[in-house]
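ok here's Amidoligase enzyme:
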Amino acid sequence: MPSAVVLDSSIGTGRPTGPDMVEDLCLGMELKFLLLGLPRSETVGLPINRSSDGTTTTSQEAYQKQAYTALARVIGRGSGLDKSGSGPSTSSAQPRAISKSDIADAGLMERDYWPSHWIVKKANSVEHMEEDPQPDSRRTNGVAISVELNSPKLAWRDLYAPSLVSKVLSRVKTLPTYVNYTCDVHVHVGRCDGVAFTLPTLKKLATIFWLAEPILRSVRNPHSPNYTNAYTWGFDQRRYSRLALAMAKKSPTTDPVTIGEDILARVRSSVRDEDDEEWQKYMSSTGQDTFRSEALRAIWQSATSQELGLLLSGSQREHRRLGFNFSAFGGEDERSKTNPRTIEFRILEGTLQEELVQGWLQICGKLVELGMKGRQTKFCEVVQYLVAQQPDYDELLKNTENDRLQARVRRERGRVTRDTLFAEFMETIGVDPMAYVPFQEKIRREYGSA
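and the structure:
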């Protein structure tokens, strides 16, 4: 039967644009962590709620509002903030920050501050667990607060962006913070002008992500209670997307969207070479063997950005936003319709370690570069490399799913480690060793070497 969601080609595309260029790229980051109490020294100047009898009140909501305002103040120290609160500043020499509640009090919206400010607000998915460190009530207000810290738009080619991130992380860590398994790091990548990527760019990126997913998910700690992202929603695209479910004949009957079955039907009825013209345009004759993959053929058969967004999203609400999140282009709920038109990376677990945060930004940016105009030769090279690695990646994936966290895979000339495969892929896409080596070490430590 036809999909119940009406496909609208305008969703996820914005106004008509030319090819996507590397200089168009912009990144945004979400850091989720716990603030283990607000130090009493940071409450100076903050409003105190008082009851009619003159006693102070300390509701959880009041604590949160105070904490977010204080954290924003700590981040923005020395940056010459406009203390009037009348509107966002545009200078990027120093980090600027504001809390979501202070934005609302000024009668403005978060999007008004996206170009310029770090925004501090509640992280709905983050919880203070019983086994976590407790706030020190002698030095703080004694209440653990869940924090989501959203960066401003970070232009990919802005040489000052890494320094800005470094300053924010160092200032945040002057406060008592903690990261547990309910925390995540999310990275959004889009265009600086807010216009959506073109459909060819999205198809190229979807191709890379689908092929590279098993090795990229190696950055996540396999021993974490939230390894599968079940707590924070960032599941495997190869298992939970509508494309994966349709290929495995596991699409739930409750899903009104049948785009997976519809596109696979197109793929299986395609018998002429001209049906694959768009793929051949980007891959030339060297892509013939690669295009035998039914998943890739389905990706390239998508006629609109919305079709592709629906195809690469999950069928259930908790699976809507996968590790490589294309839901902003599917437009099947209010959140996806109003959020920025970006691709979101939801793989990495929570961390405030600078080398991991900075490295992950670089890795995400380099991956998205592959879809840009002028990167055609590199795109073909990377696709061919990834296709050749699929037997190794499939073995790693199978081992992980069976709880056999094997670090090694077999090859004809011996055995190769998971961290070596990761480093090899990073070199292939041009990531600097300073960015990927901390992840290589993380993989080696968490998976072991045997």
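+1. Residues 1-13, 50-57, 81-86 have pLDDT under 50 and may be disordered.
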